[in-house]
Amino acid sequence: MHIELAENYGFCFGVKRAIKIAEDNKNSSTYGPLIHNSKEIARLEQDFKVGLSDDHKSFKAGDKAVIRTHGIPKNELQELKDNKVDVVDATCPYVTKPQQICQEMSEAGYDIIIFGDEAHPEIKGVKSYATYGATVVTCPKDLEDLKLKERIALVAQTTRKVEDYMEVANYLIPRHKEVRVFNTICNATFENQEAVRKISKKADVMIIIGGKNSSNTKQLFSISDDYCQNSYHIEDENDLDYGWFKDKLFCGISAGASTPDWIIQNVVNSIQENVNK
Amino acid sequence: MHIELAENYGFCFGVKRAIKIAEDNKNSSTYGPLIHNSKEIARLEQDFKVGLSDDHKSFKAGDKAVIRTHGIPKNELQELKDNKVDVVDATCPYVTKPQQICQEMSEAGYDIIIFGDEAHPEIKGVKSYATYGATVVTCPKDLEDLKLKERIALVAQTTRKVEDYMEVANYLIPRHKEVRVFNTICNATFENQEAVRKISKKADVMIIIGGKNSSNTKQLFSISDDYCQNSYHIEDENDLDYGWFKDKLFCGISAGASTPDWIIQNVVNSIQENVNK
């Protein structure tokens, strides 16, 4: 069986940057998981003594708090600063952007629509910046019963599929005087998605590696599943079932933006050792 | 044969307003045709002595110039004012709006894309307001070779089909950081189009009445033709061919925004007299 990695996959700029920041700040703690990959977080804890707290109130004056790639709500960031916590911001710059847009557009009088997952930390953070509130939607149906202003600003979770975003834009534009559409889906997401689309069209079996709560990994799996019916989302090599590869000729592999290379390599090695012999 | 008018058709707010302005300004001249309907223009000339000049330089100080519903280029308007011509502005307010948007967005640093017909007077006028220039397109293909900025402002000719406008928006949004989509297609256009879509689905034969160079009439015909293969665009009853109605049971009728009721009535009467007996 031929094994091939997608042309683009894995760690993005924002994740690499955040890990570098964490490694440079030994004996700190992140507020919430730095990235959506528990294995990499365990590595940071073991090798760099970077802890993890799920409560921003646990940080005291002088503590060092690393802000996760997904960002945090505006008021919590302010509280940390007010409490003299030493804040080290590892928010991905591509997430800071929609936060800023929400604040500016809200204060300029636009109704803010955020396309994304209301329960995802990135979106909780982004939404908190809309001074006069924002509505989070996942599809045009969510917009049907809303009473909105004539002027709308639209932003997207950085890890979403552009086709789904366009459905929301296409619903709003004919119904409003002005829709400012901000393309806040990040390039790495876009490139990883394009690459998985390409390889899944020719693969017999597709393995998508990434955290189960990683939004961008879930989108990669959704695209892969559209083109290759034998698509599997795994966190690491322990989730592999070698029965998946029986009689298959071409195995495509991709990984989410928070999946470290060493996990990807473990998966490839495991498949090669157990299937390709 | 049953004859039925579309639920919405004919004269829009801007045309009614312009005709009222012209009627209130006897012995004036319009610069270019006030509306795209030569019969109505002939009526204004005969009954209200409202002339027509195709050259703005023909107006002298003290002359009264009525500005057509479609608007005129910014520099020509300025020239008329500089030359002390008495300017009476009958530009449709729904056309003034995209003019203003072009100027504001151009000065705010956006690249301006206008969806419409470059040769149409409305678009010549709208484009002239983009201080740093604008590009006029009719479809996504026209955008392929352009080098554009990251921030785009998009406006539409008031009389275009919203579906075609969305194709242009859908091309631009994934390729740019921000696209401000202004929905400048006017409501009357939208309502007339919806109504023609509805009636043409059930009609055996469709008659669309309006000037041959009327943009909105051409769009109505295009929609009608999508649903009813026996669709005909006529200027008045003299263009009718009664053979069109042979063995037909349901004749639908619509008319462009610049088609006066008296022409529509003449068409209906002619069909009734010549076919329904």
From TrEMBL, chains A, B:
Which positions are annotated as binding [4Fe-4S] cluster?
C12, C92, C186
Note whether Cell division occurs among the keywords: no
Provide the reaction this enzyme catalyses. Answer: isopentenyl diphosphate + 2 oxidized [2Fe-2S]-[ferredoxin] + H2O = (2E)-4-hydroxy-3-methylbut-2-enyl diphosphate + 2 reduced [2Fe-2S]-[ferredoxin] + 2 H(+); dimethylallyl diphosphate + 2 oxidized [2Fe-2S]-[ferredoxin] + H2O = (2E)-4-hydroxy-3-methylbut-2-enyl diphosphate + 2 reduced [2Fe-2S]-[ferredoxin] + 2 H(+)
Q: Which CDD domains match?
A: lytB_ispH
Name the positions where dimethylallyl diphosphate binds: H36, H70, H120, S214, S215, N216, S258
Q: Tell me which cofactor or cofactors this protein depends on.
A: [4Fe-4S] cluster
Residues bound to isopentenyl diphosphate are: H36, H70, H120, S214, S215, N216, S258
Keywords carried by this UniProt record: 4Fe-4S, Iron, Iron-sulfur, Isoprene biosynthesis, Metal-binding, Oxidoreductase
How is its cofactor bound, per UniProt?
Answer: Binds 1 [4Fe-4S] cluster per subunit.
Instruction: Please name the NCBIfam families in this protein's record.
Output: ispH_lytB (TIGR00216), PRK01045.1-1 (NF002187)
> So what does this one do?
Catalyzes the conversion of 1-hydroxy-2-methyl-2-(E)-butenyl 4-diphosphate (HMBPP) into a mixture of isopentenyl diphosphate (IPP) and dimethylallyl diphosphate (DMAPP). Acts in the terminal step of the DOXP/MEP pathway for isoprenoid precursor biosynthesis.
Q: Which family does it belong to?
A: Belongs to the IspH family.
Q: What protein name applies here?
A: 4-hydroxy-3-methylbut-2-enyl diphosphate reductase
What organism is this sequence from?
Sulfurimonas gotlandica (strain DSM 19862 / JCM 16533 / GD1)
